[in-house]
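Q: My collaborator sent me two sequences in one message, no labels, and asked for predicted structures for both. Can we handle them in order? The first one she listed is below.
A: Yes, handling them in the order given. First sequence, followed by its structure tokens:
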Amino acid sequence: MRIRSLGVIDDAVVELSPGFTAVTGETGAGKTMVVTSLGLLLGGRADPALVRIGAKAAVVEGRVVMRPDAPAAVRAEEAGAELDDGALLISRTVSAEGRSRAHVGGRSVPVGLLGELADDLVAVHGQTDQQGLLRPARQRQALDRYAGDAVAVPLEKYASAYRRLRAVAVELEEITTRARERAQEADLLRFGLDEIAAVEPVAGEDAELAAEAERLGHAEALASAAQAAHAALAGNPEDPEAIDANMLVAGAHRALESVRSHDPALGALAERIGELGILLADVAGELAGYADDLDADPLRLAAVEERRAALTQLTRKYGTEGTVDAVLEWAEQGAARLLELDGDDERITELTAERDGLRSELSVLAQTLTDARVEAATRFASAVTAELASLAMPHARVTIDIRQTDDPEGVDVDGRPVAYGPSGADEVELLLAPHPGAQPRPIAKGASGGELSRVMLAVEVVFAGTDPVPTYLFDEVDAGVGGKAAVEIGRRLAKLARTAQVVVVTHLPQVAAFADRQLLVEKTNDGSVTRSGVTVLEGEDRIRELSRMLAGHEDSVSARAHAEELLAAARADG
């Protein structure tokens, strides 16, 4: 991980061990910035105050090695990212103005994607992160994860039934609480459908009636025009001497007919003039028929206008496009909606029966979940209690309280009211009795700071076999602990590192001695941490740092001897 312009860090590279990495340094040297940097890579809040004074932006870049089929790799590829030789490159930039950008696998992505990837990559534990696990909801999730398929399988069935129950309940409530509004809607629909049925409109009828009204309204002018056109084409019987189009065309045809044999071109023109004469005769005949058939009945015109007025009244009320077709479409939709509204009583009966059936199903599934959680809680509590005995809390006892809250939402198999939630009817709470005779209390109230840190560590060690997260980060989770308990914490962290990558920011030499790799964070004279300010400690350098952590300075003979003893004991234990 490379860190630039973040807090006291100017430019530094942090190389983490595959096993157990301890990050040490004097107070204020910038150890916490390592945790902050990882938090930014995991989608944490971008605070412009983190940007180093004088810099335009803080940049954190990380290289995460993972299998191509790992959940985080699959999710990153779905977002368009690519793995580089089995590693995913992640970067986060925070400007001094507060703007934030994220890149994954060479692709710019929303910052929210980093948070999604973090769920499958790193479990962060610090004083603030512990507070999250103190919440009963988080404790239930942790227990479910520990229980495995015994809870996961029925929980999936329960969740599906629960979602359906919520949907049924919402629909049932809507139907029953809006009964009056739905009845009014049904009355309006019936009125409209009756009004449309009384008129009996036909598709396209309004356009046909409009054309007929136009024709009837101008019948005399149309008849006069048709008669005049007929006279021009075929002649006027009352004026035998008048010249008409048929007569002129016939004369032209006779003139060419007498000489057509002398030139084929002229013959072709003669034929065309003959065809013209035939066409004129046809048109003249149709004009005569049009004039004879034209209906100028004022009664028919009145009937058409009356029908058009009735249709116009419908289109204004029900035709959004002002047409009869739109009215018919409204009627079709209204009839379907009315059928739905009229079926409310039947639907209420169906929904009520389905709701009751789902409640019974949920009751059985919830009991299955409770039984599985109780069994897992017994095993889990015993395992954590055993771990605490190794962490200098030999008399501490951990139990898990699983209880149900009363609520009229549903009824369980014994007829008791029970609250159905998305994850069942159980509330899970981790209880701690730190010494014999003490009443078990919620760990938030029953444990001191140091005890709480050890409880959290014990929980993670127990979870190690079932937790899919490959990396754990502990930020001074050993605060308030010393002596033998510190040695046991180091031993447990080393045990956890056998199955996962563990990164610990610590001030305890007893913990750091168990690390596979120890990193030292130190400032330069100007108060910044440069690239050379994060170094891997080996041999003599590591002994000097452990001596400083033990006695406050590197050259203490007794501290050096103790440091060498710690390292030897840690290696022997491993």
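Q: And the one she listed second?
A: Here it is, processed independently of the first:
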Amino acid sequence: MPTGKLIATLTALCALVGFALHPAPGTDLVLRRVTTFHNNLSRQGANTDELVLRPSNVNPATFGKLFSQPVDGFVYAQPLFLTNVYIPKKGVHNVVFVATEHDSVYAFDADTNAGENSRPLWKTSFLDPAQGTTTASSNDVGCGDIVPEVGITGTPVIDAAGRTLYVVAKTRERGRFVQRLHALDVETGAEKAGSPVEIKAAVRGTGIAAHGERVTFDPLREHQRAGLLLQNGLVYVAWASHCDNPPYHGWVVAYDMRSLRQAGIWNATPDGQMGGIWQSGAAPAGDGEHAFISTGNGDFDADRGGRDFGDSIVQLSRPQMGALQVTDYFTPFDQASLNAGDIEPGSGGTVLISVLGGRKHYVVNVSKSGTIYIVDPAEMGRFNPESNRAIVQSIPAATGGVWGTPAWWNETLYVAGSYDRLKAFRFDSASGRLAEAPASHSSISFMYPGPTPSVSSNGRREGIVWLVQADAYVDDGSAVLRAFDARDLSRELYSSLQAPARDDPGRAVKFSVPTVVNGKVYVAARDRISVYGLLR
């Protein structure tokens, strides 16, 4: 055997032996991993393998903050989690991964900060101030939405089998703005072969800021807010803008996960403008074949044979000949007035749900107007200027405006709108529709932006709805972690306000999504990641 292969084999054997002798903490539990935004490709936000956290033990007497770890910037990305990761010279760990606006990615021990685990297992920075590489500032992008710097906003995605974390970082390099897709080794944080790649894209079009008949990706104007999607060997990355500052377009670009070769491009408004893919941080949803996104604002002319898809829910094909194609779409009948009033569907993430024992599949989106749209992915309805009757269901004003992503569990949709309560809408198998009135709701209301709920359960039992309330982000105040009984949302099980000195998560960041896995809850804030669990 060649020397190199022998060394690699011995290293792998040592890692396996090390795991056998020193299993990671918590390996007696059912192990889960969270490798993508809202837990899965469907973006349902449910962890149905949670055996530790139950409604009976999630209360301030038995549950609370265990520890926090400091980080170097705001955290908009959802924390990700892997079990049993071999870290060279540090053994096997359950690991939580955190990405910051200071263009850093951290790997922390997910279970303890004692001893050597008081420091990151590894940290990777994409900055080099000595060489003129820094983050972009809020002044650079002309927007105070994210301050004081813009680095990593979109939630990364992990290929667990390939031990690779994919993340997009924005940098300022001697006055030039650059965005790159990085592929990092989850064990070391090192760049994989061929990584990173600079993001460049252009499509045929006559839209805003076109040069000749080409519209070109602008790394300064385009904001990589949405999480990343990994599907069919491709990494999908989506963009919107900073504060609606023109010129900009919505973009989706797909890359081969192994070579990082660019595989396909789609522009939401190639002959117009805007059409950004914000989704309040939600990643595109995937059904294993297609990608689903919602666009906000912008021009729409697809009903007249055009190529502009503002204010729409769009189904994209796999790349063909370097392009992602629209295979179907839905645009509300009142798109023009929604666009004028800035109350379009693109503010929230799209969720794919299954009903009737998996015999039917639907696409769900909730808009800034609080309308719940339910669409059949096999026939999405396109555009009807008179009404939304071509889709499965439309429930106007079902909730306050949504800047987040609903959760789906036990054929129930959990939605938390701005200036409204957390609500549970149940699917009625007899009518084949979602109930228009909530089955239960929380006693408290949320201000802007409203939270993204997630659910933990033991199968179909012991459901808990978790969320991070970020109302106080405008005043530099603290976030609040809350937990509700999924069967009856009027029953709040836990709030970090019940033991504020012990359980404060840190200063709030809007669009924050808790990660609930392996008996713990991970909450990111402006300068830290906090870990909650059962108190010893």
